[in-house]
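User: Can you predict the 3D structure for this chain?
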Amino acid sequence: MTNTPLLRIFDTLTRKKIDFQPLDPANVRLYVCGPTVYNLIHIGNARPLVAFDVVARHLRRRFPKVTYVRNITDVEDKIIKRAAESGEDPTALATRFAAEFHRDATSLGCLPPDVEPRVTGHMAEIIALIEDLVRREVAYVVDGGGAGSDVYYSVPAFAHYGELSGQPLDQLRDGERVGQGERERKRDPLDFALWKGAKQGEPAWPSPWGPGRPGWHIECSAMAEKYLGPTFDLHGGGVDLVFPHHENERAQSQGHNGDGTFARYWLHNGFVNFNDKKIAKSDETMRHLLKTAFIVRVLVEKHGGEALRYFLLTTQYRHPINFEVYDQGDELRFPGLEDAERQLEYGYLTRRRLDEQLSVGKDAPTQSGGPIADEASGWLDELSAALDDDFNTAGALAALQQGLSVANRLLDGKLAAPKDVKRRTLKRLQGDLAIASSELGLLEANPVEWLGAHRTRRAAAKKLDVAAIEAAIVERAAARAAKDFARSDALRDRVKAMGVELMDTPAGTTWRVAD
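Assistant: Here is the predicted structure, written as structure tokens:
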């Protein structure tokens, strides 16, 4: 019996919170559905990106090795449609938007997966899997009406279809939309395409059924098996993928490898809602905002990628999160991101204060094994316990704020401690905050650099005269040196009226844009 940490997860398949027991505690294997690269990503796409980055980070803290695979779908109907609209080659369009996706993922603080397979690089594996399904008679070939034939998966041949989404087959059939041509080719309305015969102007690859391209669902089955084996630990994605994408993946892979194979546990993040409604392209207001307020690139430019990441972590991944947008005519405001920026600024100011305080007398010996202030212990364990409880990032953020609060109280002298205990406690807090940062992907930047970039962005947004502020700080420093405290106070009041707060630190006077 292995002594693996107690990690609890909510499994979509069993609809229960259960103990996570990996197949091999020495190598936890995770597959997450990545983007279909045909456009810039919006906040709804960003949520699984951030959520499963935290899942991977926490798993790496708890287990010696994690193999995290997240694919890129670079051939699909949406890509072909967008390329036709823009007059661009589909492959070139997908390559361009894959690069844009990586830029956005980096801005959100997401670490790259261990493996990032692309569909176009795995045609051999996809075709081999389809061939086996046809051989096992759980898939069938029909005339595609073009240069090649179509191949469909036979849903009635898989007895467990509908278990993941929790819906009976009759109910699923009632809701299935099938075009006339497709209805004539399918044996059952729920049957889905594994291979699509080539059509004029579409990318195609040679296959036993003639030229064509894979269906959407088969791609993930083939790539997951190649890098993680026929059975692996965790499969993740947005709740919108439960049906049909993940239901179909499970059917394909178990049709190929047998019952009980493929993902052992399923994790799905909730929607990002707008005004408590699902973001939907069918809504005229939302369709407009999808081109402006919901685009990750727009939000990052206005508030920084880390603020968007913080906001997305304020709600546990399984639950919907409400994103508020205030349209003020000439400006869009995002209250959730504004608050996230304030929280991050507090965190980075704390980290900077810790660094500055500990740099004073840094050569003095510190007894590492001595006592620390009681208030400084426990919060990191609470943060880890929250993440152990189905990756509860809201609880983890609360624990992080507790650690930051203790640090500031100690630095402000509001928490009494002997000099050696204080320094040892500050050193412990500095180290614990680094661990917490690595788990959440927050407060990892250089504090001076982050605060500088944050200040520049906020000053530009408020149209502040930075040169005048800096000149007033220099003049105030001269007045303080001359012990002209009346002049010094007057200068502080002047910049305060501009919306600026001055902060005197051991390294000199700096400033921030006041709330």
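Residues 462-513 form one domain. The two ends are 55 Å apart (CA to CA).
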